[in-house]
Amino acid sequence: MPRISILASYAATAILMLGVTSAQAATWSASSPETSSCFSTNLFASWIYGSYTVNNDVWSPCSNVTAGVQTIWANTNLDWGVTSDQPNTSGIKSYPHIGYLINKTISSLNTLTAAVSATTPSGGAWESTFDIWASNNSHEIMVWLNYTGTSEGCGNVKPISYNWTSAGCAVPLHSNVSLTGGTWNVYVGSNGRNTVYSFLRTTKTNDTTIDVLAIMKYLKSLNYFDDVMIGELQYGFEITSSPGGLSFASKNFTVTVE
Predict the structure, then answer these.
(1) Overall domain count for the chain
(2) Which pairs count as long-range contacts for 43-51, CB under 8 Å and 24+ apart, including other chains?
(3) Residues 21 and 15 sit within 8 Å (Cβ to Cβ)
(4) Which CATH number does the domain housing residue 163 bear?
(5) Residue 171: which of 157, 187, 155, 184 has the closest Cα?
(6) In this structure, are residues 236 and 131 in contact, taking their beta carbons and an 8 Å threshold?
(7) What share of the chain is helix, strand, coil (3-state, %, to 5)?
(8) How far apart are CA 162 and CA 142, in angstroms?
(9) Confidence of residue 11 (pLDDT cuts 50, 70, 90)
(10) Which of the given ranges, 16-20, 24-28, 126-130, has the highest pLDDT on average?
(11) Would you indicate the residue range of the signal peptide (predicted)?
């Protein structure tokens, strides 16, 4: 075989080996296709690691909104991420996330915190958010840490709200609330199935520890609900658009319950 062919063969082999190494980098991964069908492969692919569950959660095809290709991967609760190629159209396409089941009432808890360190892209339309479910999912508490809209309820992603300005911005019911180490604008609305309380951090961040119990006690003090049972505590990336494929990663996600 000519020397140039041998070198080409070695190069091809090296590329293949690199591809295998890359493909094997994650302990678990799953890819869902571009689709408008709720029955497509891996839309809700999930992986359990100890007390944590990672979920691809491409749910828009089940609401008649076409979703793009999405690949989720995970090694542990401390190291997982997703690459998502969602079209530049309106409507949320997916919420790749990690979850931890609490199943305790507010009054029975002494401590409930969640820590995360994330990597997020500069483009697209998305929010990096906790999603806390309570009272058999009749209450949904979202805690936006980083996002591409504004804390005033404007931009390319907006919280669910009962009230809107003439310019199409959501109106917070509570502004500049000091809580769990940050300042928040709080929006309240309904998605047609449950009440949604959205806390938008006025100073965006990818690295923080949230006092979830303090947030639940705050809402309880305003009589939005009573001593509810907290169900699953989730953290992930709610993606509206990410054309061309944008990557997100979650590091060091841990939940402390006492």
Answers:
(1) 1
(2) 43/67, 45/72, 47/74, 49/74, 49/76, 49/77, 50/77, 51/100, 51/101, 51/255
(3) no
(4) 2.60.120.180
(5) 187
(6) yes
(7) 15, 45, 40
(8) 15
(9) very low
(10) 126-130
(11) 1-25
Q: Is residue 245 part of a domain?
A: yes
From residue 211, alpha-carbon distances to 78, 110, 231, 254 in Å are 19, 11, 16, 12
Tokens found for residue 231: 């169900």
Domain that holds residue 81: 27-257
**Is 7 part of any domain?**
no
Residue 15 belongs to some domain of the structure: no
Q: How far is CA 239 from the centre of its chain?
A: 8
Question: How far apart are alpha carbons 158 and 61 in whole angstroms?
Answer: 21
Output the CA torsion sign for 204, 156, 224, 257: negative
Residue with tokens 């502004």: 175
Q: What angle do CA 83, 53, 63 make, to 5 degrees?
A: 60
Q: Single out the residue of 181, 190, 197 nearest to residue 144, CA to CA.
A: 197
Residue of 211, 213, 206 lying closest to 252 (CA atoms): 206
∠ CA 251-148-215, nearest 5°, is 65
As given in the structure block, the two tokens for residue 179 are: 């809580």
**Strand, coil or helix: 17:** helix
- The verdict on residue 12 lying in a domain is no
Tokens read off for 64: 């008649």
What pLDDT digit, counting tens, does each position of 130-165 carry?
999 999 999 999 999 999 999 999 999 999 999 999
For residue 9, pLDDT over 60 is answered with no
